[in-house]
Design a protein that fits this description.
CATH superfamily: Aldolase class I
Pfam families: BATS, Radical_SAM
Number of helices: 9
InterPro entries: Aldolase_TIM, BATS_dom, Biotin_synth/BioAB, Elp3/MiaA/NifB-like_rSAM, rSAM, rSAM_sf
Helix content: 40-55%
CATH architecture: Alpha-Beta Barrel
Protein name: biotin synthase
Structural class: alpha/beta
Number of strands: 7
Order of helices and strands: EHEHEEHEHEHHEHHH
Radius of gyration: 18 Å
Largest sheet: 4 strands, parallel
Strand order of the largest sheet: 4-5-6-7
Enzyme class: transferase
Shape: globular
Pathway: Cofactor biosynthesis; biotin biosynthesis; biotin from 7,8-diaminononanoate: step 2/2
Length: about 210
């Protein structure tokens, strides 16, 4: 509270007791992705169940934590699977939905998965916007290699996007993302804490310009 930070944690499976402890410690939001639909989930994960993930999200919600939960598009699921997970996220009343697009890496189990095209990615973003219009929709990992030249169009459906590098792959330079947002005529909303911690080139200048307006 002293520094105006909004704390979001990604900690795996949680019990109701653990969720309550996190809330008491000052955590605001939990990220725990469903990743795909219940039907397709066994094709992706064998170490824990879909119900385990739902139980974690419900425990966090009941503890008063905000929910950030999304998916990875392009793992071999059907259109019906995307609709199913969109409705599940709506039923959970999530605050934020990160939509990742599979960045297939040669030599991994999904390395030979059918590649997405930019139009498929845009349709997926529209689905998640229309199914849960109050949630913050975040364009996340894999956007550069899947949306390609249509990245900017994704921001007509989404509220935000992840900037710079991801957990295991490189992203495009942050200054390119800022320029894309400027070219669209959208306003960039940030706090000083966001920019100071991210080290984003040009961010301080953007804040100064916004303050001057």
């Amino acid at each position: 509270e002293q520094f105006g930070l909004h704390i979001c944690c990604c900690l795996g499976l949680l019990t109701p007791e653990q969720a309550a402890q996190l809330k008491a410690a000052g955590v605001d939001r939990i990220n725990h992705n469903l990743n795909t639909s219940r039907r397709f989930y066994p094709e992706i994960c064998s170490t824990h169940s879909y119900d385990d993930r739902l139980a974690t999200l419900r425990a966090c919600r009941d503890a008063g934590l905000e929910l950030c939960s999304g998916l990875i598009v392009g793992m071999g699921e059907s259109h019906e699977d995307l609709v199913e997970v969109a409705l599940e996220l709506r039923a959970l009343n999530v605050h934020s939905t990160p939509v990742n697009f599979l960045h297939a890496i040669e030599g991994t189990p999904l390395g030979q998965t059918h590649a997405l095209n930019p139009r498929e990615c845009l349709r997926a973003l529209c689905l998640f916007r229309l199914s849960n219009p109050r949630a913050e929709l975040r364009i996340s990992g894999g956007r550069e290699v899947n949306l390609r030249s249509l990245q900017a169009m994704g921001l007509y459906a989404a509220n935000s996007m992840f900037v710079s590098d991801y957990l295991t792959t490189k992203g495009q330079p942050a200054e390119d993302d800022f320029q894309m947002v400027r070219d669209l005529g959208f306003e960039i909303v940030m706090t000083h804490n966001d920019t100071a911690s991210a080290g984003i080139p040009g961010a301080d200048e953007l804040l100064e310009a916004a303050a001057a307006e």
